[in-house]
Design a protein that fits this description.
Elements: H1 14-47, H2 52-91, H3 104-128, H4 140-186
Helix pairs in contact: 1-2, 1-4, 2-3, 2-4, 3-4
Length: about 200
């Protein structure tokens, strides 16, 4: 994740930021979790035994995958299309009627609750794995799994930071702007519709 530290995400266009999150982060999360689970199952099979701790860790990894996939679905199928519609409305030269409702803050609150659930599962996995530190006798495939889990944890934390710091405040501001312009258009005050 160090490759993105020099990027000023405040200067990235809204649509570009949404695309970055979907095409980079969401795709990464789904693929990485599948890889971690696949490699962990392979490690268990190579050892020829399925310990209680191993089964508990696999169960936690599967729970993590399900929570992350549900979160991604909610963002990509509900929140992001709504934001894209608001961006279209804002870019129109002529006034356009839009719903004068406040949906973004409640949607963000729901997604934040999903973030908390994901972080709880990640915290449990950290405890189970001694902060992703394999035991001395661990074979290479299990060491790889622990390294992948550590990388996923760091990446997911950066993603949460980007959403909280950059994306969500912009979404709230965008919705308020569109709602304000909708109210102005409704009473005929549309002279500054497309002025930033």
């Amino acid at each position: 994740m160090g490759n993105y530290r020099h990027i000023n995400f405040h200067k990235i266009d809204d649509e570009d930021l949404l695309s970055f999150i979907e095409q980079r982060h969401h795709a990464y999360c789904k693929n990485m979790l599948e890889l971690i689970i696949r490699n962990f199952r392979s490690a268990q099979q190579q050892r020829g035994q399925f310990s209680k701790e191993g089964n508990e860790l696999l169960s936690a990894l599967l729970e993590l995958r399900d929570e992350v996939e549900a979160l991604i679905r909610k963002e990509e199928e509900t929140l992001f299309p709504y934001v894209r519609k608001m961006l279209q409305v804002k870019s129109r030269i002529e006034p356009y009627r839009f719903l004068d409702v406040n949906l973004t803050e409640s949607s963000i609150r729901t997604i934040h609750e999903d973030h908390v659930r994901v972080m709880k599962v990640l915290t449990r996995i950290k405890k189970m794995t001694n902060h992703f530190s394999p035991k001395e006798e661990a074979d290479e495939i299990l060491r790889l799994v622990y390294a992948e889990m550590s990388e996923f944890d760091a990446d997911f934390s950066q993603h949460l930071h980007r959403e909280l710091e950059y994306l969500f405040p912009r979404m709230i501001e965008l919705e308020e702007d569109v709602r304000k312009r909708t109210r102005q258009a409704a009473i005929g005050k549309d002279a500054n519709w497309n002025t930033d």
